[in-house]
Specification:
The structure holds two protein chains of two kinds. Chain A is α+β, with helices and mostly antiparallel strands. Chain A has helices spanning 10-16, 32-42, 82-85, and strands at residues 2-7, 22-26, 62-66, 69-70, 91-95. Helix content of chain A is 22%, strand content 23%. Chain A has a five-stranded mixed β-sheet, with helices on one face. The longest helix of chain A has 11 residues, at 32-42. Chain A is globular. Chain B has strands at 3-10, 13-20, 27-32, 37-43, 51-57, 61-67, 110-112, 118-120, 125-131, 139-144, 147-151, 159-160, 181-187, 195-200, 203-207, 215-216, 237-242, 250-254, 258-261, 269-270, 279-285, 293-298, 313-316, 324-326, 344-346, 354-357, 363-366, 374-377, 383-391. In chain B, strand 23 and strand 24 form a beta hairpin. Classes of the chains: A alpha+beta, B mainly beta. Chains A and B meet through helix 1 and helix 2 of A and strand 6 of B.
């Protein structure tokens, strides 16, 4: 098992009733999809707010980052970087800026 | 002593305004859900401390919130831990999935797009929540793209009433400038099988069998922007109001035209009469006088603010046609706000209270049926909706 650190936008922290980064226990080879599954399982109020309920597609104005890399367009079964799996770096869900 | 609770949804959160029956001293709580769009909040008529709220965001989508203590605390009702058979978390309360199964009757997947082509139905947000008149756990949701959903478990889970989209006219529905939203749901206290809904820009519909089947009720409406001005559907209905004691009489503010039906929507007639402009969004009926109607005329479809910068409510005591301006206490110069379709409500105290919110963030109230007005608050974010609860 690994402990993953997740950083959420402020509005989602409020919705999930968490103040700071979220810590999640996940399987030893976590992927983008499995860590989001685990996040939604622990905080069901977040269902539908990051990914579409049915298709599990990322919502258009959100992005995924880790280790300064944009993972937003990677497939759900993409393994998370080693530094995220070891807890050295967080997996970041970021509200992208839209419009001006 | 009676008191009133005004539920205000805004672009940046919800606010709850409370006062006793005199309605002269107000307490303001909020913002609740700060930073989120609150399209609508409404309380259960049978359990007033049960309030439902539609919370949404372009970033994070739709969330349904529920309070059981009059808005002091809130919960996401489907937020319990659990797993679906497919292995996904449950979290059902935010889940609005169109019913396209052939078994339940509406395998409909497209509607008309702005350019006339067919476009898939895509859920965007909940515009209106209408709690049941008899059961605090039953609530209806009007959504964009237009459809009606129902929850019978206190908003834990939602299921579409697919007969509306499947009534046969769906492929001809088209979004208005604000999107293709189902914004009005009216329940008939005398007939639990009957409901009215309205969609921009499809028109009004009625069910007489509890939501299984729906009929367009748009005869008598005329819309100049339609190739066929008298079309069965395609009319941009902005809002409909009904007095509970006259369930066959409906008042409508259409894109242009104020209309009235006395036969449950089977036929409409225009009652704009002497209004200075008959464009507008809100319409409502006095709590004790079924022929007293209120509208807020807006200059035009391209200039969404009052005529000449003067905010005026118009009242008809004759069910339409003859209207009087109500201006005492309302800004009469340099006022260029709008009053959106769900942003007017009435209380049921002896002297009927009227409330409306503006896109300038004011909530105005009258405790004398509109003769005079005062601002309860003046600087909220743009107001999307106003509902009132009269509490004993």
């Amino acid at each position: 098992m690994s402990t993953i650190r997740i950083l959420l936008p402020q509005h989602l922290r409020t919705l999930a009733h968490v103040k700071d980064e979220v810590l999640l226990e996940v399987e030893s080879s976590p992927t983008i999809g499995s860590v989001l599954d685990a996040l939604e399982a622990k905080y069901p109020a977040l269902c539908g707010t990051i990914r579409d309920h049915g298709t599990k597609k990322r919502r258009a104005f959100l992005r995924y980052f880790a280790c300064e890399n944009d993972l937003s367009h990677e497939p759900a079964d993409t393994p998370l970087p080693r530094a995220v799996v070891t807890g050295k770096e967080p997996f970041i869900v970021l509200g992208a800026i839209a419009g001006g | 002593m009676s008191k009133v609770r005004v539920l205000v949804g805004t672009r940046k959160g919800a606010f709850i305004l409370t006062a006793d029956g005199k309605r002269d001293k107000w307490e303001v709580s909020g913002p609740h859900f700060a930073g989120w769009e609150i399209y609508h909040m409404k309380g259960s008529p049978v359990e007033p401390d049960r309030i439902y709220a539609s919370q949404s965001s372009g970033w994070f989508g739709q969330v349904i919130q529920r309070s059981s203590d009059g808005g002091k605390t809130w919960e996401t009702p489907g937020g319990g831990v659990g797993k679906s058979p497919e292995g996904f978390p449950i979290g059902e309360s935010n889940r609005f999935v169109y019913d396209t199964s052939s078994e339940t009757g509406a395998p409909l997947t497209t509607h008309q797009w702005y350019d006339g082509t067919q476009h898939p139905w895509e859920f965007k947000r909940v515009w209106h929540l209408e709690p049941s008149l008899t059961d605090p756990d039953t609530v209806y949701a009007g959504v964009e793209d237009a459809a009606i959903f129902r929850s019978t478990d206190g908003a834990h889970s939602w299921h579409e009433l697919p007969g509306l989209r499947g009534n046969g006219t769906g492929p001809r529905w088209q979004p208005g400038a604000g999107g293709m939203c189902l914004h009005t749901i009216i329940l008939d206290r005398t007939n639990p099988q009957r409901m009215y809904i309205a969609i921009s820009a499809a028109g009004a519909f009625r069910t007489d069998d509890g939501g299984k089947s729906w009929t367009p009720i748009n005869r008598g409406l005329r819309s100049q922007f339609l190739p066929d001005e008298d079309a069965e559907v395609g009319h941009c209905v902005h809002h409909i109001a009904m007095h509970p004691s006259r369930p066959d009489t409906l008042f409508m503010q259409k894109h242009w035209d104020v209309m009235r039906s006395d036969n449950a929507g089977d036929m409409w007639k225009e009652i704009s009469g002497n209004l200075p402009t008959d464009f507008g969004f809100v319409i409502d009926v006095h709590a004790h006088e079924p022929e007293t109607v209120y509208v807020v005329p807006i200059k035009s479809d391209s200039e969404h603010y009052p005529l000449d910068g003067k905010l005026q409510v118009f009242r008809s005591r004759s069910g339409g046609n003859e209207w009087e301006p109500l201006t005492r206490g309302l800004p009469q110069s340099n006022c260029y706000v709008n009053v959106l379709r769900d942003a007017m409500a009435v209380d049921s105290l002896d002297k009927c209270g009227i409330y409306f919110g503006t896109t300038g963030g004011q909530v105005f109230a009258s405790s004398d049926a509109g003769d005079s007005w005062f601002p309860i608050v003046g600087h909220l974010p743009p107001v999307l909706s106003v509902e009132v609860q009269t509490l004993s």
